[in-house]
Amino acid sequence: MTLLTGLDHVLIEAPADCEAAARHFFGDILGLPELSKPPALAARGGCWFGLPDGRQLHIGVTPDFQPRKKGHPGLRCQQLDQISAHLSRHGIPHQADAEAGVARIFLDDPWGNRLEIVEGQHPSKPT
């Protein structure tokens, strides 16, 4: 019996007053639409964004924020070279890597959290 049916969202931690930077980076640069937060959660700050497959990326305000340098969301794209060129045009540093057997880049969000963008998806097989 499968108990879980999928991944709903990933939350990235951010400092207080992160909303303008989140909207610029995830909305304007990466092109993700902002989603409305439930009123009870909106009072906490942060932003939610939609991904094309229906999953969500949440930016949540965290007291005593520290950027995550290892743990990270892995986002997908169809053409990594286009994403790389787009990031370069916006002055966003990123590093290419294929160590995991798939073309990918690593970059930081506006607060120093690590992000990964993968072309296609990581190959996986049940163990």
UniProtKB/TrEMBL annotation:
Gene3D superfamilies: 2,3-Dihydroxybiphenyl 1,2-Dioxygenase, domain 1 (3.10.180.10)
Keywords assigned by UniProt, alphabetized: Dioxygenase, Oxidoreductase
Keyword Oxidoreductase: yes
Domain of life of the native organism: Bacteria
GO molecular function, one term: dioxygenase activity
Keyword Iron: no
Entry's transmembrane regions: none
Domain VOC: 6-120
SUPFAM superfamilies registered for this protein in UniProt: Glyoxalase/Bleomycin resistance protein/Dihydroxybiphenyl dioxygenase
InterPro entries: Glyas_Bleomycin-R_OHBP_Dase, VOC_core
Protein name: Glyoxalase/bleomycin resistance protein/dioxygenase
Native source organism of the sequence: Deinococcus proteolyticus (strain ATCC 35074 / DSM 20540 / JCM 6276 / NBRC 101906 / NCIMB 13154 / VKM Ac-1939 / CCM 2703 / MRP)
